[in-house]
Amino acid sequence: MKGWAVWITGLPGSGKSSIAKELQQRVLKRRVKSRILSSDELRKRITPAPKYTEEERDLVYEMLALTAKNLTDEGVNVVIDATGNRRRYRERCRREISRFAEIYLKCPLELCIEREKRRIESSYAPRGIYEKAFARRSSTVPGVGVPYEEPLNPELTLDSKELSPRQCAEKIVEELEAWGWVS
Predict the structure, then answer these.
(1) CB of 9 within 8 A of CB of 19?
(2) How far apart are CA 143 and CA 165, in angstroms?
(3) Which residue segments constitute the domains of the chain, with CATH numbers given?
């Protein structure tokens, strides 16, 4: 059986990585394995000195979609942790993966900025992105220097200002159950 893919999208600082980790743990408790695909991790491998140009983003998201498709074709469940600032990136996955869901984290830019300032662990995510954007040292930050195109018809929209990562993950699991992807 093919796996499923859930793309958690939202502005940088909206809680994508925290929610992806919570979601992975919650489905594992139900004996459902999954892999987290992080655009930041993939970008570091493909473009070790990223410039965040449109061409570079196109390449990174094309590889992200291909990786997700290949994994789901092999029966692996995938949690995509990626801003995916252009709708076309997320729609590519929707077209190529039969069991695909887009989860939109709605969060005010001001709160995303505040969270990003307080971020201690960064793993692969670049640090200080909003600070650089407002100091005009970076013009490539989604929602500030480049557009973030909100999903038009996500399977689920979560207010990550009001809900904790745990609560968001629980709501995603409820939907996965309703779709018959997790029992």
Answers:
(1) no
(2) 21
(3) 5-108+147-178 (3.40.50.300)
